[in-house]
Design goal:
By secondary structure, this protein is α+β, with helices and mostly antiparallel strands. It is built from 3 helices and 9 strands, in the order ββααβββαββββ.
Length: 130
């Protein structure tokens, strides 16, 4: 089975939007791990030594239990080009609640940003998402 991914923004030592992240983890467990209790995101974050200055991302990969926890510096990506892709009639609310899967395809085209490509912006039911 594949692993799921949750990335939490850490700003000056404070984890952002933990309730939202817990909701996504709970929904992932409801869908894929019904026999397991979801882990507590706030408790997991509290066990980490968080950087006190700047913006970082705390990256959790998990299946039934957390597999890896990494704290990485946030690097702002420069985007020079982008393309719109109409994905058709997809339930936008369902898409927003979908769990992140760590093996998903990058949202890039023509070799990606490092090779002169760019990012894709998806148009879902007339709304732009990434």
């Amino acid at each position: 089975m594949f692993s799921f991914l949750e990335t939490i923004c850490i700003q000056n030592g404070q984890a952002q939007h933990l309730d939202f992240h817990q909701m996504r983890v709970n929904e992932t467990f409801e869908q894929f791990f019904q026999e397991w209790e979801p882990f507590d995101v706030e408790e997991l974050v509290a066990e980490q030594v968080l950087p006190t200055e700047g913006t970082h991302r705390l990256r959790i990969t998990y299946q039934e239990d957390p597999e890896t926890i990494e704290i990485l510096p946030y690097t702002k990506k420069e985007v020079n080009r982008f393309a719109l892709v109409d994905t058709g009639e997809i339930d936008y609310d369902q898409l927003q609640r979908s769990p992140s899967i760590s093996r998903k395809q990058p949202n890039t085209f023509q070799g990606g940003p490092r090779q002169g490509g760019g990012d894709l912006l998806k148009v879902v039911a007339g709304q732009i998402t990434v």
